[in-house]
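haha ok so turns out i had the wrong file open the whole time. this is the CORRECT one, sorry everyone. sequence first:
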Amino acid sequence: MKLGSSAFADRERIPPRYSCEGEDRSPPLEWTGVPREAVSLALIVDDPDAPVRTFTHWVAWGIDPGDGGLAEGDRAPREGRNDFGETGYRGPCPPRGHGQHRYFFRLYALASEPVLRPGASRRDLEHALEDKVLAVAELVGTFER
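then structure:
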């Protein structure tokens, strides 16, 4: 399974429009090679270079594997709480002068749909993914302020 974006290549800079310095919209994402038996997809976006701990930017699930992607600014069918304390996507916003941060977009192909309440936490989603993951794809972008 592969995950990509028309906005940035793997290990390349995320354009400012997808960050707190721009429109803070989710970037377009495309996926291929999803296992046939996958019934749903889940997505977690995080920054492991945050000063205190890994910072979660997006928690999403209930995504149709057949859609082939999410357009720029699209919300996922079900979204959880990010570490900004909001539901949905919030883009890169590292502290000024903290250097380059990496943003990991991880897409999970699932054998069954996770059952979660709206606004669930990342921990809730990760727990719900146990024994359901068929494949994982990863896209990494960078950003610095």
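The beta strands are 2-4, 12-13, 29-32, 40-47, 55-63, 69-70, 78-79, 101-110, 133-143.
again sry for the mixup
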